[in-house]
Amino acid sequence: MSIKIALAGNPNCGKTTLFNALTGSNQFVGNWPGVTVEKKEGKLKWDKEVTIMDLPGIYSLSPYTLEEVVARNYLITDRPDAILNIVDGTNIERNLYLSTQIMELGIPVVMAINMMDLVRKSGDQINVDKLSKKLGCPVVEISALKGDGIKEAANKAVELAKKKALTKPVHEFSKDAEEIIAAVESKLTGIKEEQKRFFAIKLLEKDDKIAAQMKSVPDVSDEIRRMEDAFDDDTESIITNERYTYISSIIGDCCQKASGGKKLTLSDKIDRIVTNRFLALPIFAVIMYIVYYVSVTTVGGIATDWANDGVFGDGWYLAGIGRSAYEEDAGEYGDAETIINAFVDESGDEDLAAAVDAESEDYDPAAAIEAVKAYAATVADDAEVTYVVQDEETMAEEDETANGADLKAAVEVYEKWNATAPDNADYGIWIPGIPAFLESALDAANCADWLRGLIMDGIVAGVGAVLGFVPQILILFIFLAFLEGCGYMARIAFIMDRIFRKFGLSGKSFIPMLIGSGCGVPGIMASRTIENDRDRKMTIMTTTFIPCGAKLPFIAMVAGAIFGGASWVAPSAYFLGIAAIICSGIILKKTKLFAGDPAPFVMELPAYHLPTVGSVLRSMWERGWSFIKKAGTIILLSTIVIWFTTYFGFVDGAFQMLSEDQIDYSILATIGKAISWIFIPQGFGNWQATVASVTGLVAKENIVGTMGILYGGQEGVSVYAAMAASFTAVSGYAFLAFNLLCAPCFAAMGAIKREMNNTKWFWIAIGYQCGFAYLVALVINQIGRLFTGAGFGIGTVVAIVIIIAFIYLLFRPYKESETLQVATGK
Ligand SMILES: Nc1nc2c(ncn2[C@@H]2O[C@H](COP(=O)(O)OP(=O)(O)OP(=O)(O)O)[C@@H](O)[C@H]2O)c(=O)[nH]1
Ligand SMILES: [Mg+2]
């Protein structure tokens, strides 16, 4: 016989902890209310006939939120064979409110008083026998965390379910109330005897959703009026009051507080400081600084660099030993080589140039040194050459000069190194990165070019883009799991909520945004901690507006090429990102998508406690792994598509694979040329900018590289000069704004998909971001042109219409403002 047992109780009372212990599963546990939002099923470890059902936590059987509906519907329609009512022993009085309702369902109930480890520690006493008599159901003491008593509790529930020993409520309300309830009960038809009390009370409470669960609904308006007249209150409050009256009448008998209930607990003491009016924000800032510093800047940054430049780059040194020595030597040698090459170029001597070409097949270091030395002897000490050095990240170019004396010094270094660049392997234990390793393997196997391209630029680059973020994400998740587990996260929400609520976000949105300034992927993942669905969606949609680390080189490139390195460009990008978040929040919360029942911000602050290492690691791994799985597939596919369209195309009518400098023949370029007109209103309707924006979707760092290839083709014109020639200041800034605000990279989109867990919402988010970016760029360009003297045109009119619409959306009244005082802060 299969038996179903439901775990029901208040939020944060330990249902999921118990569920995991009973079924051996790994459901997510967190120290704040509202962790579980869907019901979860599992089999009892020692009896596979028994199914255990974990439900979202609820405060009562009158549903307000989605979670409460899920839990209630399960309890009254699916009717489990028994209910294990979990009660938080440290907070027994409030928890019993739900218990009195559960007893009325006409289902066998066992009450498990959880957190007994804490109760005992505080010295409080709970008299289980008395409680059991007063409530009419068996009561057991457990500690889900320590595993005490859980077997007995589950077995007891199974036993009752098998006996079908329905729990009859023994609690009683005042005589008048009971009379009216009895009158309603007698009117009910088609409802089992044991369920009558539940339905009668719900009808009296004017619960509008209960009718859907009944075949026929009697008219009870008479009874409601009688009750309201007799008690001079509305029925729902009357019944709530009756329940609490009953609970307080029994609680004194059953529970003794060690401190007489007056002593402040340790949690209360901590909260006095942590949520103090003046100290709360500074403490929060310090904690966030630490989280950010460790998970983005130091440990996380090192881990990401290691993953991206080491494992998925050239390679790395075991334990970092040898790295700095290598970098120093490689730098010294590189500088010398650059100066020598500059002079060799200047000399125009082709034999000499051939001799020093280290890339050539018959390169002979000894001969190179010979040739360079002979040449250097002919150069006067004060002869000068000018050469260009390029910054690897931003492609900024700078002129340097060297003279004959520098050349001689360079030749000495050149000779010292025997005209060969220092080799990584000589400095420590050098482990080649996966691409480097694969590349040499593919070379050895004489692999076809297209396959090699597919593997290296498509698959490895794609997988690398995903996995490169993993170490950082895991480090961040350890922190988040700890902050959640110990109970501080609930305080953060509490502290920040007043500010963020004003623009439609939750107090917990702050963390995703902060983290998002390092990398959008963990930022979006961090939005998991926001339990309210609307707030979470809103946060996911807007977090990537903040410039992440990968956008910085691109911002620097635009600043350098188009704005002559102006220092205001980078800060303005952050300002733009923050403004985009605030405006989006205000606008979106007034739309239908985000409207709905106002969800009042009720959140109790759970007691602080040290989370177990196991639960922190488990939570870290669960989130990290789900990122790898889900984000991995979408990113991999997308990178392969972009790779294919970038490196294949028609040259002279023949379809073929292209080399780097033939990108203008690629399919992507063809598409870019075909669609670049959509960016004409933004002022950058050229195909290079369009293609760069598309490759930016793989990784935002790519924008710089693509711009480099596409604008770097002209002889004698630097990339920066070519860019400066094809953008004006206004269209350049519009281009910057567009790429800053539009859909993030595939890795972040993968994270959005994962977190939204819903295709429609994924596209809404991406569509919103792109649309918003498009309009902002348009307005910047059109209005900018107006001010730079391009005159008034249709574009200007469109821009003005957009601005007016925007202002309207921003300031139009909020339809729910009367019912939603909490949310609007009015
Ligand atoms: N000290 C102690 N802590 C416990 C015990 N049981 C659960 N906890 C902690 O209480 C917190 C809440 O546990 P969960 O299992 O997530 O609670 P839940 O009832 O599923 O919460 P929701 O899903 O939000 O309704 C976690 O931090 C647990 O580690 C216990 O017996 N003793
Ligand atoms: Mg739970």
UniProtKB/TrEMBL annotation:
Keyword terms, alphabetized? Cell inner membrane, Cell membrane, GTP-binding, Ion transport, Iron, Iron transport, Membrane, Nucleotide-binding, Transmembrane, Transmembrane helix, Transport
TM region positions:
278-296, 503-526, 538-562, 568-588, 627-650, 720-749, 761-780, 786-811
Q: Which PROSITE patterns match?
A: G_FEOB
Instruction: Look up and give the organism this protein is from.
Output: Anthropogastromicrobium aceti
GO-annotated molecular function:
ferrous iron transmembrane transporter activity; GTP binding
- Coiled coil ranges: none
State any GO CC term: plasma membrane
Q: Which residues form the FeoB-type G domain?
A: 2-163
Q: What is this protein called?
A: Fe(2+) transporter FeoB
Q: Matching Pfam families, A to Z?
A: FeoB_C, FeoB_Cyto, FeoB_N, Gate
Q: Where is this protein found?
A: Cell inner membrane
Q: How does it sit in the membrane?
A: Multi-pass membrane protein
